[in-house]
Amino acid sequence: MAAGALADVIRHKLGDLSPAERKVARVLLVNYPSAGFETVAVLAERAGVSAPSVIRFVNRLGYRGFPDFQTALREELDERNASPLSLYESADRARTDEAADGEASLLGQGSRLFSSAVAQTLTELPPHDLEHAVSLLADGKRRITLAGGRFTHLLAQYLGLHLMQLRGDIRLLPAGDVERTAVLGALTRRDVLVVFDYRRYEQDKVTMSRLALEHGAKVILFTDRWLSPVSAHAEVVLPSLVTTPSPYDSFVPTLAVVETVVAGVVAALGDDAPARLRHTEEIARRIGLQ
């Protein structure tokens, strides 16, 4: 099993589990990762199943027992909480190892890492989630609000700017407190909240996603393979690898997912897409932007 992919693996296996095992899986996903550190007895009680059902569940994931499962979860938490400093130290060790192997070329290293990360991300992307994301974003009856974090607000803006050229009712979550509160307070069942949240996750993204769910809105989450806590409230989860030769997580694979989603929306809109583009280009020409 790939390191750091536990919640993602659980989500993918839901359809293969027994009803009792599925109850355990859902308790873990809704309270991830804290529920995984409960005792077998407590987890079984919370899921309303027997203790042997919990053991069978972790066996189904490939672990010999519950202690092995919790060890893997602890290792994943270390990766989820990695800072640029700790990533720098890891990257420095990797650079030393590659130099010893004669593979220290920066271009070669970048080509290998980024190409592999993009290919693996797109290969492992859940087709149902991708299709559902496209369907929600292409639905002209829905209002789309996009929110990002410290760095990922750039990705939210990038996706938002593309969608604005293709359809109406697209907005970026305002930075101002009053404006942001007004937007989140006005969410309804016709809204879709698109959230970008990557490790060293931001609590406000969890809160706003929970608010969206309470108001009947749908949540689309772009995240890393460790899965933001927002995943417990998301209708759609689109994970990406963040492999990079630098101390900072890479959003190259995420950008590939965003571009794929945009392509899907264009296809789903059909003739409406070029009609909207012609209209926006005409407006741009009239106000002197072209």
Automatic annotation (TrEMBL):
CDD domains, per the entry: SIS_RpiR
The record's annotation in InterPro entries points to: Homeodomain-like_sf, HTH_RpiR, RpiR-like, RpiR-like_SIS, SIS_dom, SIS_dom_sf, WH-like_DNA-bd_sf
Q: Where is the HTH rpiR-type domain?
A: 4-80
Entry's transmembrane regions: none
> Could you name the domain of life of the organism this protein comes from?
Bacteria
Q: Which Pfam families match?
A: HTH_6, SIS
One Gene Ontology term of the molecular function aspect? DNA binding
Listed A to Z, the keywords are:
DNA-binding, Transcription, Transcription regulation
GO BP of this protein: carbohydrate derivative metabolic process
- State what protein this is by name: RpiR family transcriptional regulator
**What is the organism of origin for this protein?**
Streptomyces lydicus
